[in-house]
Amino acid sequence: MEANRVYNFNPGPATMPLEVLKETQKEFLNFDNSGMSIIEISHRSKEYEQVHNQAKADIKELMGLGDDYDVLFIQGGASTEFAMVPMNFALNGKKGNYVLSGSFSTKAFKEAEIQGVGAIAASSKENDFRNIPKQSDIKLGDDAAYLHICYNNTIYGTEYHYIPETSSIPLIADMSSDMLSRPLDFNKFSLIYAGVQKNLGPAGVALVVVKKSFIENSPENIPTMFRYNTYSKKNSLYNTPPAFGIYFVGKVAAWIKKQGGLSVMAEKNAKKAALLYDIIDNSNNFYRGHAEKDSRSFMNVTFRLPSEELEAKFIAKAKEKQLCGIKGHRSVGGLRASIYNAMPYEGVKCLADFMVEFQKNN
Ligand SMILES: *Cc1c(COP(=O)(O)O)cnc(C)c1O
Questions:
Q1: Does this model's pTM top 0.90?
Q2: Which residues of the chain form CATH 3.90.1150.10?
Q3: What is the number of alpha carbons within 13 Å of residue 140 lying toward its C-beta?
Q4: 244 pLDDT higher than 90
Q5: Count of CB atoms within 10 A of residue 50's CB?
Q6: Minimum-distance ligand 1 atom for the alpha carbon of 104
Q7: Torsion angle, CA of 327/331/337/339, rounded to 10 degrees?
Q8: Could you tell me how far CA 184 lies from the centroid of its own chain?
Q9: Which of 256, 253, 247, 239 shows the shortest CA–CA distance to 49?
Q10: Whose CA is nearest to atom 5 of ligand 1?
Q11: For residues 42 and 161, is the Cβ–Cβ distance under 8 A?
Q12: Closest residue CA from atom 2 of ligand 1
């Protein structure tokens, strides 16, 4: 571990690759021999355009997508996407259909409801969001404009392990907390979005990957900045983009490429998650996982201890070992270890060893 740095298990903003942080620091004062930093140069300069276009190209390459897809950078985080999706796609009396699998998918649905166009296709709320609804649970309305899912539920620690089949209905996914963490057949999605502060960069950017044909005709009666085709037509440079964030995301994408791409990331992430889930499963119910086994997340491992006192003690003792950010979200309680791409195996091993030792002593 780098001196003065901790193992950061925060859910987002979250740990970033050390290599990328250092590179960013190194070139901050003088970007690409311009004598200026990346936040001081024009977004119309050739230096910036190179960064912008390379980030887009690398993301598409990592996802295995062709020219029929576009990469957009939009401000306002994932929450703005919650509102933009129904504004752009739930048109002509059709409804946005939502699978409720946790807090963020419920928030997304509420934005559609505000616009009078929300419908629930499935929900695991009755089960405390411990599972991802199955394909057979999903009921699409005849008037469905799209199906919206949240692929990884950051707070409850569940993740899809299948891509819902929707026949001709466009599939839209919030992948804020597992974007670029594993390969998938991304061609099955019409639109994918992610607030980048979980797995890819600093808060302030939403990364949107979208089928070009899906956004050709954005409605003209909504504000310019909320229309997807404003971004696609202008290469996400209609107004001043969040340049530093995009630059950083580009560096993280290049870092993932250097690691070997999404299949290598997936292998590493599965290994890290298995370390923690094995301990939970072999703890004689001392550690109790929140998620049902077949819905477990590779990114956010949620679990409880026998009492809240023990949970508080666990958090305090972990901190002494430089293991930080493992307090669960207030709506679930307990503990949550967020182990995104940038969390090294050694960090998770350190937490795993600590869990074994803590159980022995308590
Ligand atoms: C964090 C998170 C959000 C909210 O992101 P903001 O960028 O803060 O709006 C939405 N969806 C998921 C899955 C998240 O993890």
A1: yes
A2: 262-361
A3: 19
A4: yes
A5: 12
A6: 11
A7: -130
A8: 14
A9: 247
A10: 78
A11: no
A12: 176
Q: What are the residue ranges of CATH 3.40.640.10 in the chain?
A: 21-259
The DSSP 8-state label assigned to residue 298 in this structure reads S
Q: How far apart are CA 308 and CA 336, in angstroms?
A: 14
Structure tokens at 7: 């193992």
Whose CA is closest to atom 14 on ligand 1? 176
Q: Which residues have any ligand 1 atom within 6 Å of their CB?
A: 12, 77-79, 104, 150, 154, 174, 176-177, 195, 198
Nearest to 121 by CA among 108, 185, 130: 108
Q: Which CATH architecture group holds 262-361?
A: Alpha-Beta Complex (3.90)
pLDDT tens by residue, 214-232 = 999 999 999 999 999 999 9
Protein residue with least CA distance to atom 4, ligand 1: 78
Q: Burial level of 59, CB count in 10 A (0-12/13-18/19+)?
A: buried
Could you tell me which residues come within 8 angstroms of residue 239 by beta carbon, excluding any fewer than 6 positions away? Answer: 225
Q: Determine phi and psi for 144, rounding to 5 degrees.
A: -70, 125
Tokens of 177: 């907390």
User: In the numeric block, which tokens belong to residue 315?
Assistant: 């958090």
CATH topology of domain 21-259: Aspartate Aminotransferase; domain 2 (3.40.640)
Confidence category of residue 109, pLDDT binned at 50, 70, 90: very high
Q: Is 344:203 a contact under the CB 8 Å cutoff? A: no
